[in-house]
Here is the input.
Amino acid sequence: MPRMLLVEGAPSKVLQLAGRLTGWVAAEDHAVRLPDPRPKARAKPASKRAA
Here is the structure.
């Protein structure tokens, strides 16, 4: 079963460490922005605000 471990450090040191551990692979972390799933409050139409 694949597992993931986040390791922060100099890229050369992380690659060196991963090379010494059998079955380990070093890969860069990539962030992906997702839209906010929470509903937004809608403003009332201008004609109803004046009333």
